[in-house]
Amino acid sequence: MAWVQDYLKGQSHQQLSLRQIAKAIGYSPGTLINHFGSYAMLLLHVNAHTLDALSDTMAGSTVVGSTMAPLPPQQALLAMAKAYLNFAQNQPYAWRLVFEHRLAAEEAIPEWQLHRIDQMFAQLKAQLIRLNPSASEDGLEQTARVLWAGVHGISVLAVEDKLFSPIDISKEHMVENLMTHFLSGWCNGETSFTQGATL
């Protein structure tokens, strides 16, 4: 899949095809289908490599220097958020494929991919429990996803250059605002999640 990963460094998957990949790596389309099961599953393997790289980048952002000393939890969460934003900006085509890719209705997401997704959220939850040891498992789960959704939203708008801000505010500053205010409220019990809650 190295060829596809290299391709995505400069071009969108929307211009990519099974026949093009097969020709580039010297295999027949049928051979690739026999190996992966479908073109969609082939791309899912590419996404697995992207998630591994993203997960490693986020994990590496939470330690300091050659001593590998862990950052305090709130700083670690902010570092992870910025690492996520930077990854999206530096590898937009591979990053987009992770979220734009769809399997056929009859194809379930394999366990090996679900495990990667769970591991990424586990990184967030590990820092959240350090920050708020009394948080419940449900609270950690929801908080991790709310934080990711907020950072992901900023990243999408940044990659698409559609922040449309009337003031001069950087993407990094937006992430800092989100993380600082949300985590402060969460730790103080001002942010909670209720099933079916309405504004």
Task: Provide keyphrases for this structure.
single chain, 199 residues, mainly alpha, Tetracycline Repressor, domain 2, two-stranded antiparallel ribbon, 2 strands, 66% helix
Mean pLDDT: 91
Shape label: globular
Could you estimate the helical fraction of the residues in percent? Answer: 55-70%
> Number of helical runs?
9
CATH architecture: Orthogonal Bundle
- The run of helices and strands is HHHHEEHHHHH
**Biggest sheet layout:** 2 strands, antiparallel
| Fold-level CATH name | Tetracycline Repressor, domain 2
Strand order of the largest sheet: 1-2
Bin the strand percentage: under 5%
Topology:
Elements: H1 2-7, H2 18-25, H3 29-36, H4 39-60, E1 63-64, E2 69-70, H5 73-90, H6 92-100, H7 111-131, H8 137-159, H9 171-187
Antiparallel strand pairs: 1-2
How would you describe what is shown here?
Residues 77-178 form the HTH-type transcriptional regulator MT1864/Rv1816-like C-terminal domain. This is TetR-like C-terminal domain-containing protein. Keywords: Transcription, Transcription regulation. InterPro entries: Homeodomain-like_sf, MT1864/Rv1816-like_C, Tet_transcr_reg_TetR-rel_C_sf. It holds the Pfam family TetR_C_33. The chain has a two-stranded antiparallel ribbon with strand order 1-2. The protein contains 9 helices and 2 strands, in the order ααααββααααα. Strand 1 and strand 2 form a beta hairpin. The protein has one domain (41-187): Tetracycline Repressor, domain 2 (Orthogonal Bundle), CATH 1.10.357. It has helices spanning 2-7, 18-25, 29-36, 39-60, 73-90, 92-100, 111-131, 137-159, 171-187, and strands spanning 63-64, 69-70. It is mainly alpha-helical.
